[in-house]
Structures are given as structure tokens and as C-alpha cells.
Amino acid sequence: MGPIIDKLLNLKGSFLALQSDSGFLSLVALSNLSRAEADRYLRLGAASVMKALSSKEPVVLRPDRDLLAEAIVTPGEQVVFVPVQSFQRVIGVLGLLADESNSDVRDWELLSSLGTAIGVSLESLRQRDELRTLATIDDLTKVYNRRYFFDQLDHEIAASRRYAMPVSVLTFDLDGLKNLNDNFGHGLGDEALRSLAQRLVRYSRAPDIVARLGGDEFAVILPRTDSAGAADLAKRLQSRVEGDVLLGGKGRELRLRVSCGSASFPEDADDASMLLRQADGRMYAAKAARARKRSK
């Protein structure tokens, strides 16, 4: 965007800084300027920048009115700070450097329209990113959802076929969620699901993909991992998940209990659906075996 603006307005350079919720400005785009130079304009022109942000109008950095401006504005040059707005909310500032003879940077209506156009575009991008995130993230646990899981699993299986590398899946089921909800309330049940998701993310490897498939079932995609590696990781994750205390106090502790199953491509299945069914089958077999053991 910077080079286009520079060409349209015949500028010597420009920069864009966006304001955080705490009020700090961060440089996000530069054109014909180094980061150090742009930062210098922001720091030494701070009074003019703040005026542009508060007034919501362009402000010229004037050496005759601001002593600090003498250190950065060279003879024959003009610097203008334009507030970047989106729906009447100021989200940043655009710095424009031009020759003193450039009349475009003295056209306040043009500059205000430019600041608004940039602001609306940035807001639209932010909303699009948020919608993309909402479409792939489970709202309760903040890990990936079922839709994203299958998209990524299809991608990993395609890569596995192409490069002859294995890929495995682990499935986890939270044991006793109904009893937890009945005895302690759904709030603690939700906390148990969130805790399980966080532990799976914390103790899995960087390339692994953790997702909630629905209810009390989670899955982990293990790229470039064969059945032996998957089995080892399943044991480690189960041990770590069950080792941490969910709730303690008053002489009692509550810990998560999970059942786990694993399956590997191409050893156990030839597509994503079959791979998950195989892992699910082994997970439910493990759950049944644990229940029989407790009943003895």
C-alpha cells in the first residue's frame, strides 16, 4: 500500500503505525524509509501525532512551532500526520513526507479520505481474520474444531502418499464427564474439557495438531509418525494428562482420566475417515478394558 500512496501523492516516503488497546503505536508498514527513521518521526513528532489522533484531523509537523521538529524536518520538506480511522474510531496514524511544493499533502479532505479508506480496509481484514479463526477454533476449549481437523488430516494424508511418510492419529475421550457434571456442575465439566485441551497442547510436539471433535472427544494429528512412535506418544500424553491435578482442596483431589486410541496411515487405513474409525475403536476398547478392571 505504501508505494502506491507514495506514487499517487508524489511522496518522498510514508509509514503507518497502528495503536494498541493500551495506546502504544507500533510501526506496521514503511515506504522509502528505514524503521529507525520512521520511529524517529514518531518520537520527535509525538506532540503532533497525539494532536492528529485526538482531533481526528491531519496535522503538519511545524519546525516553527515545535522545537523537536527542527531535528527531523529538513529544509524544503513537509511532514504530515494523518489519523487512520474506521467507523469514527481512530486506530493509528499515517506519516507522509513530501517536498514543500507538494500541494496534495495540504488537501485536508483528500488526506482525511485516505486515512478513512485505509482504516476501513484494515478493519475489514481484521474482521475477516476473526471470522477465519472462528471457523476453525472450538469456542469452549480454544483448540481446533472438527472441520479443521479433517481438513488438516486430508492434507497430511496427501503429503504422506506423495512423500511416502507415515502419519498417525490419537483420539482421547474424557472418562466420567457425566458424573463430573452431575456431582459438581457443568461449570467444572467445562473446566475439565478446557484443561484436557490445554494439557494436550502443552505436552504434544510443535508440529502436532490438537482438535476437539465434539463432546468429550479430542484428537491429535501426528505428522511423520509411525505406529510405534504414536504408541509411545499416546502413553506419554495420557500419563501427563492424568498426572496433573484438576481440582484440589479440603482433603480431596480431582484428576482427569482419559482413554486413548491410535491408528496410523497407511498401516491401518487408506483414508481419513477410516483412520479415525480405527483410532476410535481402539480408544473405546481401552475404555471398556479400564471399566472392567475397575469393576473387579
TrEMBL record:
<dbReference type="GO" id="GO:0052621">
    <property type="term" value="F:diguanylate cyclase activity"/>
</dbReference>
<dbReference type="Pfam" id="PF00990">
    <property type="entry name" value="GGDEF"/>
</dbReference>
<dbReference type="GO" id="GO:0043709">
    <property type="term" value="P:cell adhesion involved in single-species biofilm formation"/>
</dbReference>
<dbReference type="InterPro" id="IPR029016">
    <property type="entry name" value="GAF-like_dom_sf"/>
</dbReference>
<protein>
    <recommendedName>
        <fullName>GGDEF domain-containing protein</fullName>
    </recommendedName>
</protein>
<feature type="domain" description="GGDEF">
    <location>
        <begin position="165"/>
        <end position="296"/>
    </location>
</feature>
<dbReference type="InterPro" id="IPR029787">
    <property type="entry name" value="Nucleotide_cyclase"/>
</dbReference>
<dbReference type="InterPro" id="IPR043128">
    <property type="entry name" value="Rev_trsase/Diguanyl_cyclase"/>
</dbReference>
<dbReference type="GO" id="GO:1902201">
    <property type="term" value="P:negative regulation of bacterial-type flagellum-dependent cell motility"/>
</dbReference>
<dbReference type="GO" id="GO:0005886">
    <property type="term" value="C:plasma membrane"/>
</dbReference>
<dbReference type="InterPro" id="IPR000160">
    <property type="entry name" value="GGDEF_dom"/>
</dbReference>
<dbReference type="InterPro" id="IPR050469">
    <property type="entry name" value="Diguanylate_Cyclase"/>
</dbReference>
